[in-house]
Amino acid sequence: MKIRFNRLQTRLTVLYMGLFGIALVLVAIAVVTAVTSSAHRVVRDELTASGAVYNQIWAGRSEQLRQGASVLAQDFGFREAVATNDEATIRSALDNLRARQKVDGAMIVGIDGYVTAAGLNPDEAAIDTLYAGLESGRLDAGVMTIGTGPYQVVAAPIMAPVLIGWVVFVDPLDVGQMQNLESLSAIPLNATVATRATTGWRDMVGAASPLGALLDRQTFNGAAQAVTTRTPEGSAMVLARALPSFDTDAPAVLVLNYPLKRAMKPYEPLFLALAVIGLAGLALLMAGTWVLARGLTRPISALDDAVHRLQQGEHAEVEVGSTDEIGRLAASFNLMAGDIRDREARLTHMALHDQETGLPNRLSLERQAAAHPGVYVAVVGVDRFEVVRNAIGYDSMAQLLSALGGRLATLTEGSAIARVSGGTLGFSFAAGDDAEAIAIADAVCAQAETPVRLSGATVDVSLSAGLARAGKSLSGVDSTVDRAAIALDQARAARRRCSLFDAASYGDPGGNLSLISELMAAVESGDVWMAYQPKHDLRADAITGVEALMRWRHPRRGFVSPDLFIGMAEETGHIRPLTEWVIHQAIADQKILADQGHDLMMSVNISGRLLSDEAFADFALNEVTASGADLCFEITETAVIDNPELALAIIDRFSAAGIKVSIDDYGSGLSSLAYLKRIKADELKIDKAFVLALDESSRDALLVKSTIDLAHSLGLKVVAEGVETATAMALLQGMGCDIAQGYFIGKPMALKDLSERLAAPVGEARTAAA
């Protein structure tokens, strides 16, 4: 498992403590190992020395008893008593000798195996073992088990002059004798004599020896070696030395046992002292390391904190308190933080200022408005900006805006003047209500319109202003600056110097834009349909043609004005698929009418944006050629202004293919005789603005009459739209107009209604239209 530390100080402390702890453990292991090894060596040497001492004691005691027994065995009277079996004399002599030699028992073992004993009563097994050993001549001193305990036995032969028996001294190997041996050792060892019986090793009291397993593994030839083993009391050092035994099947062993716990006890204070010293050193190291690590990590922590503050956009510096690597790192960080601060300041200045004029920019003005809800934002625009800029040049225009900015700042008592767009400046100010705000802005614009001198020349400027109040707007335009800019457009459209943002006039452009996607879906679903307005031939007194007009009934908005969705389609580029659908539908409906016996010319309005689209021209020509339809494309005169060469070429292609061309809304725009001469048109359509007041205005009547004469002189038919009264229709007929179109003739109607209108008698149809 990997341990994670969140603090370097903790990591350093734990690391050094761990290293020191490992070092202490290794030292402790080395000390304990050395001390233990030394203690073991001392104990082993002491056990070996104690075993050697016991051998000397054993040999000396055996020699002492042997000499005593030899003295008795050489006594003439005693030999005679043994030879004559004088038991009373023998016992008296044995008791006397036993007392002098301080042994527990003495025996006379005859050559025939008869035993006379004093001080003990050996069993038959012991007598048989003793006799077998003496008779074999293998040894005259050794260990023999009598009853359950071991005894030291020493024998001397009785010669008269031949061997007639043996004088035998028997001394028990008991606890007292072992304690005498223990007292001679430099260490407090435990001594005992173990004998091997059929049931295993037995100690001096006849109990099973706990070291039986060890004794079974030992070989008792040569010098005895001390070994470490486990005992019921714990680990101990044991030395087992073989003793001579009269019974070869029951060897005897001197066992010297020294518990190692006792050997290590003198060193316990040393170990305790080492442990205390180690813990004290560990605690001291921990405290010292903690203090040292704290000193090392404090500047690092300060750097970490400074980095976080720098990341959050705050300016941060750390104190440099040393000249080492950390100090140099802190100094480098401070330099970097300073560079970042300067760079961010430059970037912020660039983000909030216009590069050409040095004035605050639109974003800066937005922030001012957001920081002070309720203030008014004014966007002041240079009227005819493009004309003025083209006249004085781009560089001079930037100087002009800078000069106007300074002038506006003075007039608004030091307000921050921002450049909103190419020819507009903006500022914010406080006012009590809308009327006061309009008055302030109007006065500022009036005073700022004085001529500006640039490079020795005087430039006249005219200013308009739009106003909006900062705060949430319900118009869908959240930006206060955007609302003020829209108000500027509204002021110019209304030909006023200053105007407040009018949400009702602005409408809902976002909602209108969504109409386009809904319009294309409506075409597929059938919500968009074709309506046809009749065109009455004044000479034939009959309907000879119709104008195809799109109608859309929205499921939620109801009837949608064609002026709205057609204009949006032109702006968004959807006008081409819409017009292609109209052409396709008009051709199909013309065929239906033809099958009913009504041969009518279909007029279709063509957007000026399509007159420079050759792909559309190819589509229209292919449709007309394939169907043989009789179509008339109505175009406005101004439609050819943007790209006249290409537009006129496409109109020529239409005319060559038999498609009639009508110049729509003539008189409403900048009518040009030059374009009228160049366009290969078939008819001229007078704008309804002149026809509606035809019976009330002699000037309109004069203009309509002159237009009809001009068109006829150019070989064009004339269509008057907006015919809504019988008087107007009669006047047009009198002026020689060819075709009339308007509500008096008939409103736009569905194909079915048009079929019924055409099928009705002329009088009934005129009555139905009215």
**How much helicity do the residues have?**
40-55%
- Radius of gyration, in angstroms, nearest whole number: 68 Å
**How many separate domains make up the residues?**
3
Q: If classified by CATH, what would the architecture of the largest domain be?
A: 2-Layer Sandwich
How far do the termini sit from each other? 97 Å
- What's the CATH topology name of the largest domain? Beta-Lactamase
What's the level 1 CATH class of the largest domain? Alpha Beta
Q: Overall pLDDT, averaged?
A: 82
The profile of the biggest β sheet is: 8 strands, mixed, barrel
Strand order of the largest sheet: 18-19-21-22-23-24-25-26
Uncertain stretches of 5 or more adjacent residues: none
What's the CATH H-level homologous superfamily of the largest domain? PAS domain
Shape: rod-shaped
**Percent range for β-strand residues:** 15-25%
Q: Please work out how many helical segments DSSP would assign.
A: 26
> Which structural class do the helices and strands define?
alpha+beta
Structure in words:
The protein is of the alpha+beta class and 770 residues long. 51% of the residues lie in helices and 21% in strands. It is built from 26 helices and 26 strands. Strands 18-19-21-22-23-24-25-26 form an eight-stranded mixed beta barrel, surrounded by five helices. The chain has a five-stranded antiparallel β-sheet with strand order 2-1-5-4-3, sandwiched between helices. A five-stranded antiparallel β-sheet has the order 7-6-10-9-8. α1 runs antiparallel to α8 and α12 crosses α13.
